[in-house]
Amino acid sequence: MNKLFITIFTVAASFAATSGFAQELTGDAKAGAGKNTMCIGCHGIPDYKSSFPEVYRVPKISGQGAKYIMAALHEYRKGERKFPTMRGIAASLTDQDIADLAAYYSTSGVVADAKLPAKPAMEPSAEVQGLLNKANCASCHGANFSSPIDPTYPKLAGQHADYLFVALKAYKTDDSPVVGRGNPIMGSMAKQYTNAELKLLANYVSSVQGELKVVPESRFR
Q1: What does the alpha-carbon distance between residue 99 and residue 86 come to, in Å, rounded to a whole number?
Q2: Is 8 within the bounds of a domain?
Q3: Count of structural domains, the chain
Q4: Distance from first CA to last CA of the chain, Å, rounded?
């Protein structure tokens, strides 16, 4: 097990080094608020659903970590995340646009001085706990799934379960030109599970109290 985690963190360090250029820019949240026109049509509508590659709610991104949002958008732009719509949007953004949008969404809807409990109030079932232990999910995403050990990793608690399920399955997909995610760490983790097990994980993590939310734009309230 120790050897496995040494390998994982070695890969993580290498991956972070190759994407570090994208995280050196300082984002301006106010500027980002004026650049989110392409975002609000999906992420500014509560329970808005995507229909590709299946029907699921688009992710909550308000309150997500800025460096994770930056990393994700750069991965879409490079094709490491293959979702066609997001790849097209990311390709239209400059590095500064990405930094500004990340700064905006990381502060959008955030309540000052609010603190989450260190661990989820609702304990997982024995089956789900065993699945969480299998990949040691808390070692990267935090015991409350909202305190990732690296800022380029996502907060997961309270995220839509159907989105989490689709995202986890995408890490298992290697042979599609339009579906899949290339992160080697998550790929190795997700492939340990059946899809039924991934759904159990997604349902539990979604039930945990978190900071993620949808902040409706005024036109969609």
Answers
A1: 16
A2: no
A3: 1
A4: 49
Residue 197 has which token pair?
Answer: 């097990």
Q: Which domain holds residue 148?
A: 26-216
Structure tokens at 144: 């409350």
Give domain status of residue 180, yes or no.
Answer: yes
In a domain, 3, yes or no: no
Task: Find the largest Cα–Cα distance for the chain.
Answer: 52
pLDDT over 50 (residue 18): no
Instruction: Give pLDDT, residue 201.
Output: 98
The CATH number assigned to the domain holding 149 equals 1.10.760.10
Number of Cβ within 10 Å of residue 104's Cβ equals 24
Tokens standing for residue 193: 């599970």
Structure tokens at 89: 């949007």
**Predicted TM-score (pTM) of this structure:** 0.89
How far apart are alpha carbons 144 and 149 in whole angstroms? Answer: 12
Tell me the CA distances in angstroms from 127 to 67, 152, 207, one per residue in order: 32, 29, 16
- Name the pLDDT band for 24 (thresholds 50, 70, 90): confident
pLDDT digits 0-9 by tens, 164-219: 999 999 999 999 999 999 999 999 999 999 999 999 999 999 999 999 999 998 76
Residue 52 lies in a domain: yes
- If you average pLDDT over residues 25-36, what whole number do you get? 97
> Alpha-carbon distance 92 to 98, whole Å?
10
